[in-house]
Specification:
Number of helices: 14
Distance between the termini: 30 Å
Strand content: 5-15%
Number of strands: 13
Helix content: 40-55%
Structural class: alpha/beta
Length: about 425
């Protein structure tokens, strides 16, 4: 699946947190960095470990013992581990195909996160044309289906094809070697992954294909997203209903039965429902801020302090007499940095009179800033990624103001009220 999470809807004034330093920021949540294939940063969310262990245990304790009861524990667990790794590598290929095609089409993708329900390519901006979205969405499932077909052909070349036509399929299955067994398991798993993602349930890839087709036909992305999101909601509630029935003993074609599979299907349905709503909200945000420069929405009333001000003056003359908790620091017209409560608290009160703000501030070189001509959508994305409430607006070294979360959200609410 592809997608981007909507910004956090919190608001604050410049008294809130300062923008974080670049080194401490990342567009991803906690997790493990796996590398940068093709220039895309790939991270594994900690939840991936749980599903990896479940897949490994299912193969090592269930599937492969049934297929090959004569295998030694070392061989069984070794093939189970290899199959689990290759499965998640297949998921990574699925997401990389989205990211690579997106980059070719001019759609910025900041990276990929693998998590318990699959993978997510972090798209910084939605496609501007339906044709671009159609290509980017379709390539992921097609890559999974391609992997499934290739691994299936390889398995057949190693004797796995005879399993289907054998009078005793299990006996023929037991005669397969380790590599053929691994490929025989990996092939249908990828085919199912590709076909599942082609279901027209937004924001699954198939749902994005549906939205692209509707957008192409109607010329209205908002209407297309609303319709596709409605279809996605219907699919998600169907998954939840089927999952609940499976927990209570019902069995269904394709889905099977049992409480574990049922709970898993409920989780998938809940995720799809939440993602469909979030994707529609994100579109409303993007359209409200489209082609709105930062200078239109920036706040220019924040107090600034000279860099030679001591902390005692800052506290008693500035902090106690206003409602700000974070101050821009300047030298003449030059923006030097930000000083906030946490910086003041780092210095004992007895030393406030001898400590200048420039010695405790966060330098401008370590802050994330935006320019007045930047797109307001990009500014909101920065606020969300950095988990901050305002970012300095700087032009040629001069501070012009702050772009604040509350001002952007107010603008979005007003625009939505007029539409």
């Amino acid at each position: 699946m592809t997608g981007a999470s909507p910004p956090d809807a919190r608001s604050s004034t410049p008294r809130g947190r300062a923008p974080e330093r670049r080194a401490a920021s990342t567009p991803f949540g906690p997790g493990v960095r796996l590398g940068r294939p093709f220039g895309f940063e790939v991270r594994a969310d900690f939840s991936l470990l749980a599903i990896f262990v479940l897949v490994l245990l299912n193969l090592g304790l269930g599937v492969f013992p049934a297929w090959h009861p004569d295998w030694s524990p070392a061989l069984r667990w070794g093939i189970a581990f290899g199959a689990s790794v290759l499965f998640f590598a297949s998921v990574l290929v699925h997401e990389l195909s989205h990211a690579i095609v997106g980059r070719k089409l001019g759609i910025p993708v900041s990276g990929i996160t693998l998590f318990m329900l699959g993978g997510l390519a972090h798209v910084e901006r939605e496609p501007e044309r339906p044709q671009a979205e159609l290509l980017m969405a379709a390539v992921g499932p097609l890559s999974s289906i391609g992997i499934g077909l290739v691994t299936g052909l390889l398995a057949a070349s190693l004797g796995a094809g005879a399993v289907v036509d054998a009078e005793d399929p299990m006996a023929r299955l037991r005669s397969l070697g380790p590599l053929a067994t691994l490929l025989l398991w990996l092939s249908p798993v990828n085919l199912i992954l590709g076909i599942f993602n082609l279901l027209p349930g937004f924001p699954l890839d198939g749902g994005r294909v549906l939205r692209a087709a509707l957008w192409w036909a109607t010329g209205d992305r908002r209407t297309a997203t609303r319709w596709a999101s409605g279809v996605g909601q219907a699919f998600s509630w169907a998954f939840i209903a089927i999952g609940v029935l499976m927990v209570f003993g019902f069995r269904f074609p394709i889905f099977g039965g049992g409480p574990v599979q049922g709970i898993w299907l409920v989780l998938i349905g809940w995720f799809l429902s939440s993602a469909a709503r979030a994707s529609y909200r994100q579109l409303l945000v993007d359209q409200a801020l489209a082609e709105v420069p930062v200078r239109t929405l920036m706040f220019t009333g924040a107090a600034v302090v000279p860099d030679d001000t001591d902390l005692d003056v800052l506290v008693h003359e500035w902090l106690f007499r206003g409602n700000q908790r974070c101050f821009a620091v300047t030298h003449g017209e030059e923006f030097r940095g930000l000083v906030c409560l946490r910086d003041i608290r780092s210095v004992p009160e007895a030393r406030w009179t001898e400590t200048r703000v420039e010695s405790v501030m966060t330098p401008a070189s370590e802050l994330v800033t935006v320019s007045p001509s930047d797109d307001a959508r990009d500014a909101l994305r920065v606020l969300g990624e950095r988990n901050v409430d305002q970012v300095p607006v700087v032009e040629k070294g001069r501070l012009l103001g702050f772009v604040r979360r509350e001002d952007l959200l107010r603008w979005i609410a007003l625009r939505e009220g007029l539409v």
